[in-house]
Specification:
By secondary structure, the protein is of the alpha+beta class. The chain has helices spanning 85-100, 110-121, 131-143, and strands at residues 2-3, 7-13, 18-23, 26-30, 36-45, 48-59, 67-69, 72-83. It has one domain (2-143). A six-stranded antiparallel sheet has the order 1-2-5-6-8-7. The longest helix is centred in the middle third of the chain and has 16 residues, at 85-100.
Length: 145
């Protein structure tokens, strides 16, 4: 959903397998189970920003457990969730750093997003996502059935 200056819901990253455009402000994207995506929400009124939130989530398969997430139907496994512009800005910077290191955020190990969430919740700086960590994750992911 996009209403310039009032409400903006956007996907920071993700690889949709399908897309349906409802109108010029609204589209629906579909993800295969296991796919990671980042979903941001922002809203304002005449006094300024009233909501800033960012969630990094994993699409679920039928029968999997999930958490509800606004605008995500039926829901997703939430790996990282922050509210408030300072934290959202910090996570966007961390995503930018991952991309600058040559890694697609869609391919980052889910445990790293959980690590980032926990460190941010504790007021600590998350560890950087190192290319060696990524290589190990890719090998592990390819071994699973």
């Amino acid at each position: 959903m996009w209403q310039e200056g009032l409400r903006e819901d956007w996907l920071r990253f993700g690889k949709p397998v399908g897309q349906r455009i409802i109108d010029r402000r609204t589209r629906v994207e579909s993800y295969k189970p296991g796919q990671l995506f980042a979903f941001g929400r922002w809203a304002s009124n005449e006094y300024g920003t009233i909501r800033s939130a960012l969630a990094i989530a994993r699409a679920v398969a039928a029968g999997d457990t999930y958490s509800t997430l606004p605008q995500v139907d039926p829901g997703a496994e939430i790996l990282l969730s922050v509210r408030g512009w300072p934290k959202v800005r910090q996570v966007l910077g961390l995503i930018d750093a991952i991309e600058a290191g040559g890694t697609d955020p869609c391919d980052v190990a889910p445990d790293h997003w959980r690590h980032m969430h926990n460190r941010l919740a504790a007021g600590m700086q998350p560890r950087a996502y190192h290319p060696d960590r990524h290589r190990v994750w890719l090998r592990y992911r390819n071994l699973r059935p």
